[in-house]
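hiii, so i know i said id send this last week but things got crazy w the move. better late than never?? heres the sequnce for the chain we talked about at the cafe, plus the structure i predicted for it. fair warning i was half asleep when i ran it
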Amino acid sequence: MNKKTHILLVIVLAINTLRYGTYLIEGDTNIYYILMFLANLIAMLFVIFSRMNRKKSQTDGSITENR
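okay and structure toks below
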C-alpha cells in the first residue's frame, strides 16, 4: 500500500470512528453503533501499527544489507 492510500484510509477510518463515537457519547447505545465504533477503531489501529511494522522491517532490512 503506498503512502497516499495509507493516509486516505486512516482519515476515513478516523472520521467514521469519530462519527460512531459521537453517537455513543450522545447516549444512543444501539448495538450497531457500538460494533461499528469498535470495528473502525480496531481497523484504524491495525492500519497504523501495520504501517509502523512495515517501516521498521524495511529499516531492519537495509541495516542487514549493509553488513
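btw The longest helix spans residues 31-66. thought thatd interest u
miss u guys!!
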